[in-house]
Specification:
Elements: E1 6-9, E2 12-15, H1 26-30, E3 33-35, E4 38-43, E5 46-50, H2 52-65, H3 74-87, E6 93-101, E7 115-122, H4 131-134, E8 136-144, H5 161-173, E9 178-182, E10 188-191, E11 195-200, E12 203-206, H6 217-228, E13 233-235, H7 242-245, E14 248-253, E15 257-264, E16 267-268, H8 276-290, E17 300-302, H9 311-316, H10 323-333
Parallel strand pairs: 8-9, 8-15, 12-13
Antiparallel strand pairs: 1-2, 1-7, 3-6, 4-5, 4-6, 5-17, 6-7, 9-10, 11-12, 11-14, 14-15, 15-16
Helix pairs in contact: 2-3, 3-10
This protein binds pyridoxal-5'-phosphate.
Pyridoxal-5'-phosphate binds at residues 37, 164, 190, 193-195, 214, 216-219, 253-254.
């Protein structure tokens, strides 16, 4: 990443190399971070976040699960996300807010540790490369997702991604683009970093959120777009073999967007090409960003015209310079 890139860190916009943490950071030892992955798209009307408010809502919900006090309001986090994209002058971006337990003691239950917040913005194209067009070859992982009463899947917490790393690494080692995991009940769960959809007899089928999957924002968008396109939807438990029966399979997520799956365990999905329902949903989804699909849900938020956060709160929270001040100092620097 360019050393010129700016990172929002505890209220300041800092050069990439200066946004650092202490080795005693609790999150480093115990995985106690919650985060989001958000995309900013270059639309005909300029750079726009996709479902920013929903990502921020999930960030705060994840923090609540682990009793982490974010120290900022959702409106301040929204504004900070917008300010970091604006400060880096990016037409499109992948934005990563992360809230984590920072420096202090080494107790498993944090006592003196700070809560730190950082927001990075990176250039990021298609996560699965040309699979977005041609389909990805995936496998069912030998690893399961955690049981629902172990690590809460709805909370997007750093520690959960150790499991994702095992799934993705195994898949990569065996020559697949991605791994799909079953739950401990043996039913289909989700990919290492994506929710899953199947098309069976014209019905769009996906495991329910009660299966212990991340409540994906792209998943929700796909369900709403399907409704708008009159595609019937069923959220229900899906056995593994459905992957080999299905006419179409795709994965979705902020990074993966809508990526068709053309084979599972070296078995072609349908005729091995991208099917019509997947294509229609891709068209509707990507159409949101080039103006072909009307944003009737209010999902897009401009990066510019960001209301800047309340300065007093950031100071009270002990985080020093507000994004507004940081933004103006960046402008002076630039
Ligand atoms: C495990 C997992 N499932 C699903 C998703 C998709 O979620 P979203 O669409 O909110 O990005 C992600 C991506 O963050 C993920 O990491």
């Amino acid at each position: 990443m360019s050393e010129q890139a700016l990172i929002w860190h505890n209220g300041d916009l800092k050069p990439w190399n200066e946004a650092t943490v202490h080795v005693s950071a609790h999150a480093l030892h115990y995985g106690s971070s919650v985060f989001e992955g958000e995309r900013v798209y270059a639309t005909p009307e300029g750079a726009k976040f996709f479902r920013l408010a929903d990502h921020t809502r999930r960030l705060f919900a994840s923090a609540r699960v682990y009793s982490i006090d974010v120290g900022y309001t959702p409106a301040q986090i929204d504004a900070a996300c917008r300010s970091v994209v604006r400060a880096n002058n990016m037409p499109s971006a992948y934005v990563r807010p992360v809230v984590f337990r920072g420096a202090g003691g080494l107790g498993v239950l944090p006592t003196s540790n700070s809560v730190d917040v950082a927001i990075l913005a990176l250039p990021w194209g298609s996560y699965h490369g040309d699979a977005r067009e041609n389909g990805a070859d995936v496998c069912v992982s030998s690893w399961n997702r955690p049981a629902p009463n172990t690590f809460p899947a709805w909370a997007k917490a750093g520690g959960n991604y150790l499991n994702s790393q095992l799934i993705a690494r195994e898949a990569q080692r065996d020559g697949y683009a991605e791994g799909i995991a079953l739950g401990t009940d043996g039913m289909l769960n989700e990919g290492a970093g994506e929710n899953l959809f199947l098309v069976m007899d014209g019905v769009l089928v996906t495991p329910p959120t009660s299966a212990g999957v991340l409540v994906g924002i792209t998943r929700d968008s796909v369900l709403k777009l399907a409704h708008a396109l009159d595609i019937p939807v069923a959220e229900r438990a899906v056995p593994r073999e459905a992957l080999y029966y299905a006419d179409e399979v795709f994965m979705c997520g902020t990074a993966a967007e809508i990526t068709p799956i053309r084979s599972v365990d070296r078995t072609a999905v349908g005729d091995g090409t991208v099917g019509p329902v997947t294509r229609a949903l891709q068209d509707a989804f990507f159409g949101l960003f080039d103006g072909r699909t009307e944003d009737r849900w209010g999902w897009l938020t401009a990066v510019s015209d960001a209301p800047l956060p309340d300065q007093e709160h950031a100071r009270q929270a002990g985080h020093g310079q507000t994004p507004q001040e940081a933004q103006s100092s960046t402008e002076i620097r630039a």
